[in-house]
Amino acid sequence: MEKPQEHNHNHEDPPISSTTPYPPTCTSSTCVKCGGPTSFPPPPTRSPWSEISPPPNYRPIRSPAINVPPNTNSQAIMLAPVPQSQKISTISLPHTFQSPSKKIQSPDDIRQFVNSDSSKNFLGFIVALSESIRSQKISDSCHESTTLKKILSIIKTLIQWIEEIPPVQQSARYGNISYRTWHNRLVENSENLMLQFLPDHLRSSMVEIVPYFTDSFGNSSRIDYGTGHETNFAAWLYCLARMGIVEEVDYQAIVSRVFVKYIELMRKLQLVYNLEPAGSHGVWGLDDYHFLPFIFGSSQLIDHKYMKPKSIHNEDILENFSNEYMYLSCIVFIKKVKKGLFAEHSPLLDDISGVPNWNKVNSGLLKMYRAEVLEKVPIMQHFLFGSLIKW
């Protein structure tokens, strides 16, 4: 009698190693080699990842602090009134300027700030800037005052300093310490930079406006940058408006010339010195660093004949028009620094692309800016108050 053939393989669960494919190659509860029964159940017929949403191959700059999006106040944001533009009341001279200081420490302080005339006027300034660029391209001609040209020259100088201060070799991935050298130069030269455009009768304002300016480009000790620093830059511009140095006729150029160049500077700082996102919402935020260019950029696209919110998924449109529209430029930059599916690393922006028109996007972002930036203690605890932005 012929002896049955012995099997030289077992039917136990195969060891899992980094090279073991998933699911295992066996597709039933019988052995594919001999047809005998196996001790482990048949694997799932499909991958645990759906074909629509495969495993992400990007590495987010910072993981979200929580596993679900913070939607608890989204309904409140939707029901809130849309912020309205306001005229900026200029100071009367002579005026006593003061060194600004931090005032916000608690939710009660936030409520006091949000209900104040200072808060409403500052947000009204942001809305007015947004309206000034409505349906306009970046390259469209606009009034460019001598003061704004000097401010633009200052930002170009700051960009040039990055070329002169290269990043050092270090083991840490984020926070290149050469940024501190750049920021120290900024602080040391800040008063001289202000003197380039401040009229003689307003030179005493430096004690108040310099702190907003130096806080507009990130934090040198933490080597980070976020929407709070971006808000400081807007506050610095607001202070100039309060002093009458910039006027309503300058608003379009403030956005299309000055702010666009500011974003260029900040992206260069982020890439060269690997700035950490400051207090980022992680994957559930609009962006790791910015908010205002989405507001201004959505205003640019209002009533555009061809480009809709869903157009951000059209690579041809992004390639051909990102140099003219801030919103598209932001999307291009995000896709450059983050890999993988857009819906995976930027779900909020992906959701916004489903909104029917840019008008709704713009008004929604203004409400979100008020709720997610101006009403958040972790951001506004660093905000400064003086005689121009009163507490």
From TrEMBL:
Low complexity bias locations: 15-30
Q: What is its main location?
A: cytoplasm
The top EC class, named as a word, is isomerase
Q: Tell me the superkingdom of the source.
A: Eukaryota
InterPro entries attached to this UniProt entry: Phstyr_phstse_ac (IPR004327), PTPA_C_lid (IPR043170), PTPA_sf (IPR037218)
What subcellular compartments does it reside in?
Cytoplasm
User: What residue spans carry the region label Disordered?
Assistant: 1-72
Its Enzyme Commission number(s) read 5.2.1.8
Cite the record's Basic and acidic residues compositional bias ranges.
1-14
Give the GO terms filed under biological process for this record.
mitotic spindle organization
Fetch the Pfam families from UniProt. PTPA
Catalyses which reaction(s): [protein]-peptidylproline (omega=180) = [protein]-peptidylproline (omega=0)
SUPFAM superfamilies found in the cross-reference section: PTPA-like
Q: Give the GO molecular function terms.
A: peptidyl-prolyl cis-trans isomerase activity; protein tyrosine phosphatase activator activity
What does UniProt give as GO cellular component? Answer: cytoplasm; nucleus; protein phosphatase type 2A complex
Q: Which UniProt keywords apply?
A: Cytoplasm, Isomerase, Rotamase
Functional summary from the UniProt entry: PPIases accelerate the folding of proteins. It catalyzes the cis-trans isomerization of proline imidic peptide bonds in oligopeptides.
Q: What family, per the record?
A: Belongs to the PTPA-type PPIase family.
| Name of the protein in its database record | Serine/threonine-protein phosphatase 2A activator
Print the organism lineage.
Eukaryota, Viridiplantae, Streptophyta, Embryophyta, Tracheophyta
